[in-house]
Structure formats: C-alpha cells, structure tokens
Give the backbone structure.
Amino acid sequence: MRILRFGFIFLVSATLSAPAANAAEAGTDGNKLVCKSIRITGSRFPTRICHKKADWEKMREQHRRDAEELLNTRVIETRR
C-alpha cells in the first residue's frame, strides 16, 4: 500500500510540474517546443523527439527539397 501511495504522489507531482516547464520554454511562436512521437523502423515503440517549431519547419523544408531533387535528377547508368 505504501508503494502505491508513493507512486500516486510521484505521478501527480510530475504531471503538475510539467506544464510549468513547458510554459517557461515556450517563448515566442518559433521558439515553442514541439514534441512528436515517431516510430523508428525495427522498433515496436515510438520514440518521442522534441525540437523547436522553427526547427521542425526547417527539417520539413529540407526533406521536401531532398525528395524533389531525387525525383528531378537523371539516373546515371552504372551497368556495363
């Protein structure tokens, strides 16, 4: 019973302190911390990855440019 009480107190304290930490880091809109659950190939469990909103936008734009470059380049024949 003592373990359950300790676990409950720990859980409540963790959930109450989390919004305060996120609010302190929020700042402006571009500096807002955004966390996403991403499923890694070969793993059954998603991984939580956090970056600033501006960084997510930069990565999305870079991935779009990389995909566009891959589709628009000619394939070099390497067979003999």
User: Anything to note?
Assistant: The helical segments are 2-26, 53-72. The chain is about 55% helix and 20% strand. The CA atoms of residues 26 and 74 lie 44 Å apart. The radius of gyration is 21 Å.
